[in-house]
Design brief:
This protein is an alpha+beta fold and 355 residues long. The chain has two domains: 143 residues, no CATH class; 155 residues, Phosphatidylinositol 3-kinase Catalytic Subunit, Chain A, Domain 5. Helices cover 32% and strands 17% of the residues. It contains ten helices and ten strands. Strands 1-2-3-4-5-7-6 form a seven-stranded mixed barrel. A three-stranded antiparallel β-sheet has the order 8-9-10. Helix 4 packs antiparallel against helix 8 and helix 8 runs antiparallel to helix 9. The radius of gyration is 23 Å and the shape is globular. The relative contact order is 0.10.
Length: 355
C-alpha cells in the first residue's frame, strides 16, 4: 500500500508529465503560428525560374531547406513557379512572386505538413516594400480572423550549379492558402464572379472596405474578385470578402504603384472610400468603434518594428493619424464615406484590375 504522501508525489508527477506533454503539444507550431522570421533556402534552376515571366507559368523542380526548432536540417523536394500578373509580367520587379507547390508525402512531420500551394511574396523593388506589405496583412489580422495569415521568411536562393549569378539572402513572406484560411474560420472558399458587394455580410464588408480606405488601397472590387477572395458558410450563406495583395496601397508606397486613371486620384496616398452608398452614417458607428479599439495595436505594429526605418515609421504614423482624425470628425467622415453616393463622383467605378 502506498502511503498518503507518496500518493501525492505520484499524482503530482503525473500532473507535471501531463502538463508538460500538453505544453509540448501546444508548442508544436504551424507555419503561420510564429512571429519569428523563418530561414529557408530554395535550390534549383534559379535563372530559368526567374526568367519565366511571360505566358503560362512553368513549374521547375527545386529543393527547400530549413532548420526545425531543434536546429535539425530539413530538405523538401517541391515544384516552384512564378505567379501573378502585374508583378510577374510587367518587367518591374527584381524578383517575380512565386508559388511553392508541395507534395503531401514530402512534407509529413515538417513545418509545412499541412501545406499544398503556398504563395511567396518576393522583394519586387527592395526588402522594405516586402516588410510594408507584410504589415498591411498584420493590420487586418488585428481586426478579424477572416483574413490571410502571413509569415516572414529570410530566403536564400541557390543555383543548382556554382556558376551564374550570386544572390544575397533577402526578406519575403508566405501567405496562408485560401482553403486553409477558410477552414480555419469554419467556412469554405467560394469560386463565384459578379457577386454584388451588398451580398456580403454587412459588418464584414464595412470592416473590409474601411480597412482598404485606412491603407489607401483602391485596387480591389468584389464584383470582379479583384484582390478579393470570397468565403461562405457550408450552406452558401454568410458571404464574406477577404482582401489580399496590398502592394498598390498608399501605406506601402511601392515606387511602381499608381491609382487607376478612372478614379481621378492624384496619388496612391489619397484615400478614397470604395464601398457602396450608405447615406445613414449611424451604420458605420460599430465599424468605426472597432477600428478605434484596435488603434493602439495597429500603431504598435509600426512603432515597435525593428525592420522598418525611422523615416517610414514617422510618415506612416502620420498617415494613420489622418485616418483616425477622420473617424473622430463626423463632418469629415460623412464627406469621405458617403462619396459613393455622389452621382457625379467616381465612387461607383468598378476596378477590374490595374494594367
Amino acid at each position: 500500500m502506498i502511503p498518503g504522501k507518496t500518493w501525492k508525489k505520484v499524482i503530482f508527477s503525473i500532473a507535471v508529465i501531463f502538463t508538460v506533454g500538453n505544453y509540448c503539444f501546444a508548442q508544436k507550431e504551424g507555419l503561420f503560428d510564429s512571429e519569428e522570421i523563418l530561414e529557408i533556402t530554395l535550390k534549383g534552376d534559379v535563372r530559368a525560374l526567374f526568367a519565366n515571366t511571360k505566358g503560362e507559368a512553368e513549374y521547375f523542380g527545386f529543393t527547400l531547406g530549413y532548420s526545425d526548432n531543434y536546429r535539425n536540417p530539413n530538405s523538401i523536394p517541391l515544384r516552384v513557379k512564378t505567379r501573378g500578373h502585374f508583378r510577374r509580367e510587367m518587367n518591374i520587379c527584381d524578383y517575380p512572386p512565386l508559388l511553392l507547390n508541395f507534395a503531401k508525402e514530402n512534407v509529413a512531420n515538417t513545418i509545412f505538413s499541412s501545406q499544398d500551394k503556398v504563395k511567396l511574396v518576393m522583394p519586387c523593388r527592395g526588402e522594405k516594400y516586402v516588410m510594408r506589405e507584410y504589415l498591411t496583412y498584420k493590420i487586418y489580422n488585428q481586426l478579424t480572423p477572416n483574413s490571410f495569415k502571413v509569415r516572414l521568411v529570410r530566403l536564400t536562393v541557390l543555383n543548382e550549379t556554382d556558376s551564374g549569378k550570386s544572390y544575397e539572402p533577402f526578406l519575403g513572406f508566405l501567405i496562408e492558402e485560401e482553403e486553409q484560411m477558410a477552414q480555419r474560420v469554419k467556412m469554405a472558399s467560394l469560386d463565384k464572379d459578379l457577386v454584388k458587394p451588398e451580398s456580403v455580410v454587412k459588418d464584414d464588408f464595412l470592416r473590409m472596405a474601411v480597412f482598404q480606405y485606412l491603407i489607401g488601397n483602391t485596387d480591389w472590387s468584389v464584383q470582379y474578385r479583384q484582390n478579393i477572395k470570397l468565403i461562405s458558410s457550408s450552406e452558401g450563406t454568410d458571404l464574406i470578402a477577404v482582401p489580399y495583395d496590398f502592394d498598390h496601397a498608399g501605406i506601402v508606397r511601392a515606387p511602381y504603384a499608381k491609382p487607376a486613371p478612372e478614379l481621378k486620384l492624384a496619388t496612391i496616398t489619397d484615400r478614397r472610400y470604395r464601398g457602396y452608398c450608405i447615406d445613414d452614417m449611424r451604420i458605420f458607428e460599430k465599424t468605426f468603434e472597432e477600428f478605434k479599439a484596435k488603434k493602439e495595436a495597429i500603431y504598435a505594429l509600426y512603432s515597435e518594428s525593428e525592420l522598418l526605418d525611422d523615416k517610414y515609421i514617422k510618415s506612416t504614423i502620420k498617415f494613420l493619424d489622418g485616418f483616425y482624425t477622420t473617424l473622430s470628425n463626423p463632418k469629415r467622415a460623412k464627406f469621405d464615406f458617403q462619396y459613393p453616393c455622389l452621382a457625379d463622383g467616381t465612387g461607383n467605378v468598378v476596378i477590374k484590375g490595374l494594367k
